Amino acid sequence: MENIVVTIIKAIITGLMLLITVLLLTSFTRRAYNERKYQRLDRLRKAFDNKIRESLESGTMLKTQDEFRARPESEAWQAIEGVLLNLINEDRYRDEAYKLFYTLGYVWFYEKKIEQGNIQVRALGIDKLGRMKSEVSVSKLIALLDDKNPEIVSVVVRSLSKIGGRTALQAIVERLPAILDESIVTRKAMGMALQPFGADAIPYLLEQKSGQDKLWIISCILDILSRLPADPRSVRLATEHLSSMNAEVRSKALKVMGRAENIRAFQNLPTLIRPLLEDPVWFVRLQAIRSIRALGDDAAAPLIGKRIFDDNWQVRNEAAQALTVLGERSLDIFLDILTGTDRYAKDSICEEIEMTNFSEQLIANLTARDACVQNKSRQVLEIMHSLGFSTPLRQYLEQDGGEAEKMIIRSMMMVESGA
Amino acid sequence: MKRILTITVIGFNYGVGMYFGVLNAVYSILLALALFVIFRHLRRIKYSPYKEFNMSQETPPVTILIAMHNEENVVLRSIRSALATEYPFFEVIIINDGSTDGTLQKVIDSFGLKKIDRVYRTFLKTKPVRGFYYSLETPNLLVIDKERGGKADALNCGINVSRSPYFCSLDADSLLEKDALIRVMTPLLDSSVPVVASGGVVRIINGLQLTNDITIEKIDLPDNTLLLFQIVEYIRGFLFGRVGWDTLRSLLILSGTFSLFQKASVVEAGGFMVGNVSEDMDMIVRLHRHMLKKKKPYRIRFVSDPICWTEAPDDLKMLGRQRRRWHLGLIQTIWQNKEMILNPQYGKIGMGVLPYYVIFEILGPVIEVLGYVFVVISFFLGILSLNFLLLFLTLAIFYGVFLSTASIFLEELTFKRYPKWSHLFKLLIYGVLENFGYRQINSFWRFEALIMYFMGMRKWEHVHKKGTEQDEPAAAVGTK
To answer: pTM score, two decimals?
Structure first.
């Protein structure tokens, strides 16, 4: 028995010694090989960068392009690919770089890669075709949108968005419900992928929406629309869904509407949005405040003021922030809230006044010409002081500032402490 | 009597043989998985969307939480490094956990902060807050000054104040690489199953040359032997240990030095446990427990490319403190969650991973120490085969060398953060040398921790940062 154990241990030790030796040798040879390889690659990249730019500048590329042909995956091939990938991102060389990718065989090479079995090799090929903006590969890439592997679909969507064009866009949007339904690509990833298409994507998304009865897909479409440039068609769709039974849909619709500040045709948007400040779902109310703030709807200030008393803290904070942005126009609302009984609402307003440095404006207002502004600002500061939010006043007294304001502050603080 | 003793000793020897056999088999499986997964991950990085996430306005905001206690020598570096992070929307919250040195004043002066009044609302109970400091000039930086309550308490305080759906805990002596946050966030954005926590790689900062205090200019290895051992150890621990466990979806530890959490899940799980000396492991185990109990789908991920550099202890006294604390934290965490062990409700975490941690991680040092005792007993009983003992020791050493070499090989193949030939040789040599003394002393510290635990000495042993002036009296809890 012991002999068997000893033999086994000896065998394992021998195996380990062999493995260690192999690992060491591989580490050394790999490092030595890579060091030389990357030095050569750097040199080649520099040389090809100069040559290709010269040929492109002088218009002699047709004559010289054979100089840039290399064996696939050789160092020269990799160096030229790196140079062209840089050039394709420069506006003036974009078209030529794309043509070179095609004529030098890169497109063909990576199109072959995407037909292979290994997922990573395929995904890398798809990614490369996208980065090369290979329009001729669009049909092959579109076919891969129906692939069962989520990784592949995700990379295809991104690559198609880099290539751009109506065919690619239409193909993505047509499959949007299926892709999202099967959780193949996350909504965020899809939204980002469609961003480069800009406003072109809108009609296709609207078309997709029209045949759609799943509310969550409508919500996704609205979500994607909210990240694209503001467009009357998107806003129209959003207004149609403001009264949706689904809160997500209402919230996304509000988000789309919040981007419509420069669309004149929709001057009445604030009036449509205001009722949603009373929505039963908190994140709809939150989005309503954000959209109203984005649209600069000053008239909604009293309604936002009511949200300072909201049950949800995120809504309360958002409302407080929105009011400080409105500045002096909010003074009346501040006073209403600060003279009320809701301690949380009072604290939130005071915090936001300090965080946004609006307290400095209030102190400056203490000597304002407008007696009304002066009086209201003083009242706000007095209440803040009584609630324990006195730090801005104390700091003002300690620093170099207007003596007139300092005197008023001292008297305020004395009255308060006397009281 | 002698016969019974002899049988016991022989039985124990075979038991130890089998124990190490199983343990090494687990390590080998983890290594094989790590090799496979890291290769796959490296290929995936080439077409990973993380750069697109970095530019997107829709990437969820993150709060970076840095708990500080007497860190005046490193505080500015860590804040500047956190603020230099490349990420769409993030805020940095510094929690000054009752520092008695100039930490707070240094931050206030350097960033021109002003005291502001803020109401402290608590989801998670913490020690009282003394003040908030803020400046519109750096609107994504907020400093909280609070009474000393320990790292867990400080992190809970940061969670209470944070407004983002995710937070990243970062140690005060750490340097975050610029793209580390977006890289560690990528699994959360890319996954169709909610990822409640995600961790990145921690490397040792000692030896690095920095410009502007936050940009790595040159990576070099330190001269200190202990630090070199730790560098090999960190490479092994992160590159094959964590990657392997992540592949098995069985991660129990993410380093508190640099981890990202979904705030809602952490709050639901009760926040960080005050009183546990290893708050990071405790949080991960309780997240598993909470999600499995609620039968919610979730993932806890480890990602091998985001990197955070941190300071390591450079003398035996401090290293001993750190290792005892780690082991104590491990025992505390497992004990506090003991009802999960062998409980089918908790799936493979309860049925496999926790029992593994009890048998091989907590009891490992005991078996090792008992092994030495039984060698002596075997010698007196006349049943010690010197050849067999030497053979067994040779096997153990070679296996250790193999694991270290394989880890350095992984590093060489992948991230290659140590570029010089001399670095490679040094790391390989120290991978061999650590088997002669360093590993044994580590086992001894872990054994000490076990004894301390049973004797009720469950205290946080403070580890000095470079240049820290005074030793803090050991408290029941503490900030690293």
So the answer is: 0.78
